[in-house]
Design goal:
Length: 210
């Protein structure tokens, strides 16, 4: 019991100590520096607290835009994609300009793509990312990020291929040929002519449920 409670007490003491030191009415530079330091330490919850102080006390500071993007990228690196998208939405809402629209759209696309954890089960997210990547390529044809969005589109189409083939095989085992044929057609995307594509492999225990 003692071994598990000591780290909790230590974290609580650190949080209380920080809250006593970090009084309000600090400069924007102070809070921005605090956000940067906590991100560098990997303490994203504390960084979020410092960010809230920066946003609350210095809503019009130019440092807030950079801090917002820093928080988004930090959460993306930590594979916390819902929080990453939250900060990207905040950035778009407060600071989004026409010149940044492709970058914000791509970062949200990349965040959702990285959020696909199970290629044989996350069908809704796969289809959403596939459609949005196609839309990005069409909408931002001259963007330098277009090739990266196109790559995501190909990868999600390949995921959809494999998912569709697995569903088709399931229907065949149940003697539902029409449904099987429908899903077989959904999985006919071939990015390489006469090329050989290897199927992804799930962890052996998870494969029982897919």
């Amino acid at each position: 019991m003692r071994k598990t409670i000591y780290p909790v007490l230590a974290a609580l003491a650190l949080t209380i100590g920080c809250s006593q030191k970090d009084v309000s009415n600090q400069s924007a530079e102070y809070w921005y520096r605090q956000v940067s330091e906590q991100i560098a330490r990997g303490a994203l919850e504390l960084a979020g607290d410092r960010y809230s102080s920066l946003a609350g006390e210095h809503f019009g500071s130019p440092l807030l835009a950079e801090a917002t993007m820093m928080m988004a990228l930090a959460h993306m690196d930590a594979e916390e994609y819902l929080l990453a998208n939250f900060y990207l939405d905040e950035y778009a809402k407060r600071f989004g300009a026409a010149r940044d629209s492709d970058r914000i759209a791509y970062l949200k696309l990349l965040s959702d793509y990285r959020g696909i954890k199970r290629a044989l089960r996350d069908q809704k997210l796969i289809l959403d990312v596939m459609e949005r990547s196609e839309s990005f390529v069409s909408r931002f044809g001259s963007s330098e990020l277009k090739p990266f969005a196109a790559a995501i589109n190909v990868k999600t189409k390949l995921m959809n291929n494999e998912l569709s083939k697995n569903v088709a095989a399931l229907y065949l085992r149940r003697d539902k040929e029409k449904a099987a044929q429908y899903y077989e057609k959904q999985g006919e995307f071939k990015p390489i002519e006469d090329g050989k594509l290897e199927s992804s492999k799930s962890w052996w225990l998870r494969s029982w449920f897919e």
